[in-house]
Write a structure and sequence with these properties.
This protein is of the alpha/beta class. The chain has helices at 4-8, 23-32, 44-51, 105-115, 136-147, 186-199, 210-237, 245-252, 275-285, 291-317, 346-355, 398-401, 405-409, 426-431, and strands spanning 13-17, 36-40, 72-75, 87-90, 125-128, 157-160, 179-183, 204-206, 326-330, 359-363, 378-379, 390-393, 416-419, 435-438. The strands form two sheets. Strands 3-2-1-4-5-6-7-8 form an eight-stranded mixed β-sheet, with helices on both faces. The structure holds nicotinamide-adenine-dinucleotide. Nicotinamide-adenine-dinucleotide (NAD) binds next to α4.
Length: 442
């Protein structure tokens, strides 16, 4: 059983199930904090590269950072990990299905490999970190405890501690972000709060139940989706009345309690476009109203299509129909500085442009060509290779911002530039010869 004394003396073995964006830094963090760590994953690629001491992911922060000492063990086999663990932390994906219903198969399969292998005498605590709706930990794992005849509070404890860190952001890594923790037992919750305090310098905030901790996480991302949806909607309204949305937002932001967000081609990543569906599903099942959250989700989900229409309208004003218009997208990953393409809004934007008859080219030096295999776009090694009619800034990678706009303009016959992220100085672009447009400009 986990106790404060065992945390203090580092006398605990911590299993991490799922060694992706979240699990790997968590495992490394607990190892650095002095604990025995056993990492478990179902991906042979991930396990083999970790066993070779190589970083399996795309965050360069972990290049050369994979330990080789006896307190670091990695395996594909749950029976080589789970029986030895005092704490098992689960960091598996929680995506949505095509119809936006939560896909909890990974949480369930991780639960099976844990609960069929735990050592009851150890009374381990199993902590879910994956983002879910309130109730998932018990709904999915409760029946498994019954199946394997495990009694909560006697053979095993359950807890939930949402992950909040931002990959690629050194100021908000697993070692810095504040944490929320809820457990079935207040003593276990207090000991877990101590354990997480060895991982992070941020505050660790215990709550009264697993469900409160689950709800807190999903609400964080729902709030971001709502705030971004508001500025995205404003970016569709203000240009229609001849006003630049960014000028409005900058003016409003001089008030002390205004929250400043920037509109764009849409939201991406594993969290914001996904997590609200988890709460929508739970609220709907509970018969509770969920209108605002659903509307915000649809505003953000429709943003790439709205932007595609506006790009094509701008080209039409210059006498070009969508047919065979050559459009170059600068950036494909969902945010700057990383290679993560999950739920990237560039994809629905490209699809809408292609559906209208245009040819879409993509330049993103962070992305491997084969990651675009499923997308019907043309990959280019350099932006000047295309002779594009229209150039759309989709991801504000530093390399994108540093493009020589004059040189690129010389390759373009039409010379229409569209800023999908509101990050470039349009005067510079116009001086370089571009006709400019962008999200929220009149
Ligand atoms: N990526 C982020 O920025 C971030 C931030 C906060 C929270 N989250 C949440 O954390 C969770 C994990 O996200 P991620 O980005 O690390 O996902 P990921 O896809 O990068 O990694 C998940 C890993 O789990 C492994 N896996 C799947 N099923 C397994 C099983 N049954 N047993 C063992 N391993 C298994 C996969 O092979 C993969 O390596 C999600 O719920 C996500 O919403 C992610």
């Amino acid at each position: 059983m986990i106790t404060r004394n065992r945390v203090e003396s580092r006398d605990l073995t911590i299993g991490i199930v799922g060694l992706g964006y979240v699990g790997l830094p968590t495992a490394l963090g607990f190892h650095d904090a002095g604990f025995n760590v056993i990492g478990l994953d179902i991906s042979e690629r991930v396990i083999n590269s970790l066993k070779r001491g190589e970083n399996p992911g795309d965050d360069p922060a972990f290049d050369g950072a994979i330990p080789t000492d006896e307190k670091w063990n990695i395996t594909l086999n749950p029976s080589e990990a789970v029986p030895f663990c005092d704490v098992v932390i689960v960091t598996v994906p929680t995506p949505v299905l095509d119809d936006h219903r939560p896909d909890l198969r990974f949480v369930k399969s991780a639960g099976v490999s844990i609960f069929e292998n735990i050592t009851r005498e150890k009374r381990p605590v199993v902590v879910l970190e994956s983002t879910v709706y309130p109730g998932v930990t018990r709904e999915i794992w409760g029946p498994l405890l019954e199946k394997y005849e495990l009694e909560e509070g006697r053979d095993v404890d359950l807890a939930y501690c949402p992950e909040r860190f931002v990959p690629g952001d050194p100021e908000h890594g697993v070692r810095q972000v504040p944490r929320v923790v809820g457990a079935n037992d207040s003593g276990v919750c207090a000991a877990l709060a101590d354990l997480y305090s060895t991982l992070t310098t941020g505050e660790v905030h215990p709550v009264s139940s697993i469900e409160v901790a689950e709800a807190a996480k999903v609400v964080e991302n729902v709030q971001r989706d709502l705030n971004i949806a508001l500025v995205n909607e404003l970016a569709l309204i203000f240009p229609e009345i001849g006003i630049d949305v960014e000028e409005v937002l900058s003016a409003a932001a001089t008030k002390w309690n205004f929250h400043r967000y920037t509109p764009g081609i849409g939201v991406g990543g594993h969290c914001i476009p996904v997590d609200p569906y988890y709460l929508i599903q739970k609220a709907t099942a509970a018969g509770a109203p969920v209108d605002l959250i659903s509307s915000a989700r649809s505003v953000n989900a429709n943003m790439p299509k709205q932007v595609a229409t506006r790009i094509l309208n701008n080209a039409a004003k210059l006498g070009r129909t969508p047919n065979n218009l050559k459009i170059l997208l600068l950036g494909w990953s969902y945010k700057p500085g990383i290679a993560d393409v999950r739920e990237t809004p560039s994809e629905p934007l490209a699809s809408a442009l292609i559906e209208a008859g245009s040819k879409v080219y993509v330049w993103d030096p962070f992305i491997q060509k084969d990651e675009l295999q499923d997308a019907p776009v043309i990959w280019v090694e350099s932006p000047i290779d295309v002779s594009a009619d229209v150039v759309v800034l989709c991801t504000a990678h530093q390399v994108v911002l540093e493009i020589d706009w004059k040189e690129l303009r010389d390759t373009s016959e039409l010379g229409l530039f569209y800023d999908g992220r509101r990050v470039v100085n349009m005067n510079d672009l116009r001086n370089a010869g571009w006709i400019t447009a962008g999200v929220g400009y009149p």
